[in-house]
Amino acid sequence: MKVIRNFFDNQKPNFSPGGKREKYFPLYDVFENLFFLSKNKTTNPIHVRDAIDIQRVMAIVWISTFPAMFFGMYNIGSQSLEYLSLINSQNTGDWHHYLISPVGYNPDNFINKFWFGAMYFMPIYAVTFIVGFAWEMLFAIIRKHEINEGFFVSSVLFALSCPPDIPLWQAALGITFGIVIGKEIFGGTGKNFLNPALTGRAFLYFAYPSQLSGDKVWVSGITDNGIVPNGYSGATPLGLAAENGVIGIEERYTWSQSFFGGIPGSVGETSLIAIALGAMILLMTRIASYRIILGTLLGMFVMSSIFNQIDSDNPMFSIPFYWHLVIGSFAFGLVFMATEPVSGSATNTGRWIYGFVIGVTVILIRVINPAFPEGMMLAILFGNLLAPVIDHLVVSSNIKKRNQLKEVYE
After folding, report:
1. Which of 23, 160, 219, 363 could be disulfide-bonded to 303 (CB atoms 3.0-4.6 Å)?
2. Residues 309 and 377 grouped into a single domain
3. Could you list the residue range(s) of the whole structural domain that residue 16 is in?
4. What is the value of pTM for the model shown?
5. Packing angle between helix 348-368 and helix 290-308, nearest 10 degrees?
C-alpha cells in the first residue's frame, strides 16, 4: 500500500489547483478514495463528529447487496440449466457447447450454475457502472466538485433490479436516465428527491413495457440460440397469482422455495433470506431505519388482510401477506430502496408513516391495478414524492405541540 500511496502523492500536484490537469481532479479523487479514506477532517466545533462518513456508508450498503447479488447469479444459472436439461431430454438440440465453465459440463454443479449466471449479470453490471460513472465524472468536472460515492450504490441496485436478459443498451439508457434526470439535474447526491436506481428502472419499465414486464419465464439458451423446448411454457409467481391466486402459485412453487429464492425473477429480488442478510448489515450499522422497514411490513399486512376479507372475482384478493412478502421485488425494494435516507422521510414519526404508505400502496397496485402486477417500484417512488410533505406535517405538528406546552407552563 505504501507504493500506491506514494504514487497518488506524486500525482496529486498535477491535479491540484494550478496543476496542468486541475479540471480532472474529481477523477483523481475518486480513484484515491478507492484505496484510501479521505484525509479531510472536521475542525469547526459546531459540527457533529462521527466515526462514519459518506464513503464508509456507501461501502457498507454496497457490501450488503453481496448476498442477493451472489445468490442472484447462482439462481440465474440454476433456473436456466434446469430447463436446458429439459431441452436435452426432449432431444430438441445440442446445447452443451453453450456452457463454458472451468469445471466442464455438469448442470448440477454449483460452480457451473454460478458461472452461467455470472455471464449474464456481470455484463449488465459492468455496462451500468461504466456508463453511470462516465455521467458522474462529467457532471463533477463541469461543476468542479468531487465525485460522490452514492453512485456505487445506485449502479449495483439498478443492475440487481433488472431482468437477466435485458439488452445492454437498455441498461445503459436506464442508468443514464436515473443518474442524469433522477439525480444530477437536482444537484447530485443528497439533493435528489427520487431514488436514482428506481427512477432509471421506472423509465425502462414505461419506455419498453413489452420487454421489461410480462408474466413469462425467461430461460437462457432457448431464445438466445434459437432452441425452443417442446411443450414448455411458464409464468412468474406474480403472473400465476394474477391468473389463479394462491392456488396458481402453489401449483408451481412452494412458499419455502420462494423464501429461499428458487424462483424466476430479476437478479437480486428472488431470495428473501439473502436480502435479509443485507438488511441485518444495514440495521446493525444503523444505515437503514427499522421504522421504515416495520412500517412498510405493517402497511402491507393491513392492506392485504383487508383484501383477504373481501369476496371478489379478482384472484389477487386472496393472496395473503406472507405470499406478498416472498414474490416479486417487495423484499428487495423494502430493504435497499425504501430505506434510502436521501429520498425517504427524515423524522422518526415520518418514517413510520412513510413506510406504512409504501406498504399500503404496493398492495393496492398489485391487487387493484392488473396492468402493474409488481407495484413495489411505483409504491416507493410515490413514497419518495410524499416524504417531504410527511416530514413537513410531522415537524409542524411537533412545533404546535411545543407551543401549546409553552403556553400551559407560562
Report:
1. 363
2. yes
3. 1-39
4. 0.81
5. 30
One domain, residues 26 and 168: no
CA distance 222 to 84: 8
Q: Is 156 exposed, middle or buried (0-12, 13-18, 19+ CB in 10 A)?
A: buried
The answer to whether residue 53 is domain-embedded is no
pLDDT score recorded for residue 298: 97
- In terms of Cα–Cα distance, which of 373, 345, 38, 349 is closest to 216? 373
31 and 68 inside one domain: no
Could you tell me the three cell numbers for 220? Answer: 437462457
- Where do runs of H (alpha helix) occur along 182-260? 196-207, 209-212, 237-250, 255-260
Which parts of the chain have pLDDT scores under 50? 92-93, 95, 97-98, 100, 103, 222, 224-225, 227-234
CA distance 383 to 377: 10
* Rounded Cα distance, 103 and 111, in Å: 7
Alpha-carbon distance of 189 to 182, in angstroms, equals 10
Q: Compute the distance between CA of residue 347 and CA of residue 379 in angstroms, rounded to an integer.
A: 20
- Residue 216 phi/psi, 5-degree rounding, is -95, 150
* Same domain flag for 385 and 303: yes
Whether residue 116 contacts residue 84, with contact meaning beta carbons closer than 8 Å, is answered with no
Calculate the dihedral angle through the C-alpha atoms of 273, 292, 153, 375, rounding to the nearest 10 degrees: 80
